[in-house]
Write a structure and sequence with these properties.
single chain, 255 residues, mainly alpha, 11 helices, globular
């Protein structure tokens, strides 16, 4: 299992797309801190990178890589190796490589320019978001044999979590503005890993006042130790559940 992880990990690190991804992250991160007069503005710029660019690259690259590795997976299946070990090795190899790329590209600038709780929080959230969308990539790739459909599912998943989900939330808030549904929004937030990440980072940036009454409620809940633990637990579930579903499908799939 460790050998498979090592092979996948080293193979991905040599991939030009990952090298370009790391370089672009580094350029954007360093320039964000270099061009702004204070680190807070740079952190807000990196926040957008974490919430939009990182999930898109993670889910797209992982999905395409899995489809391109079909022959390698079939070769592994012909060996006396359990399917669970193969799928888990693929996930760990991909995840480690993507997290390392994020750490080098955005993590190091964060730790140097914002060596505080906010910088560490953004680094941890970025790593978790990477893992979440790699897990979703595994799920989307196992749902269909067709590469184009799989990539389409991955893109639609990213669009839903990055854009459509917020639109739905805004629509609900507008339609039910006469009702006290702010507390219900806390529950709804759990259905989007990007929103969970955004709220945690914004609360640590202490800009919740800009979010109005809803922001105050989020701060009262997610700003506590219990809320922080719950949000991280939910993000971990967003990693575990999609991967576990994909693992079950992979075990039963006739390749």
């Amino acid at each position: 299992m460790n050998r498979i992880i090592k092979i996948i990990f080293l193979d991905i690190l040599k991939n030009k797309i990952i090298l370009a991804y790391t370089l672009i992250l580094a350029i954007l991160s360093w320039s964000s801190f270099g061009l702004e007069d204070n680190s807070a503005k740079g952190l807000l710029t990196i926040l957008n990178i974490i919430l939009f660019t990182v999930p898109l690259v993670s889910i797209l690259f992982a999905t395409i890589y899995l489809y391109n590795s079909t022959e390698f997976i079939e070769l592994l299946l012909s060996q006396p190796i359990k399917r669970k070990k193969i799928w888990l090795s693929l996930f760990l190899g991909l995840s480690l490589a993507m997290v390392l790329a994020f750490f080098i590209g955005a993590g190091i600038p964060l730790l140097i320019n914002a060596p505080n709780s906010v910088g560490i929080m953004m680094l941890v959230i970025g790593c978790l978001i990477t893992l979440v969308f790699v897990a979703l990539a595994f799920l989307s790739s196992i749902l269909t044999r067709d590469k184009a459909k799989g990539i389409g599912i991955a893109i639609m998943g990213w669009l839903y979590f990055a854009l459509l989900f917020d639109g739905i939330i805004l629509y609900l808030l507008f339609q039910f503005s006469d009702y006290p549904i702010e507390k219900a929004m806390i529950v709804v937030t759990a259905f989007s890993p990007i929103d969970l990440a955004r709220i945690q980072i914004l609360l640590h940036l202490d800009v919740s006042a800009m979010m109005g009454y809803t922001g105050a409620i989020f701060k009262d809940f997610f700003g506590t130790s219990l809320g922080l633990l719950l949000s991280f637990s939910l993000l971990c579930l967003w990693i575990i559940i999609p991967f576990f579903i994909s693992l079950i499908k992979f075990k039963n799939k006739d390749l």
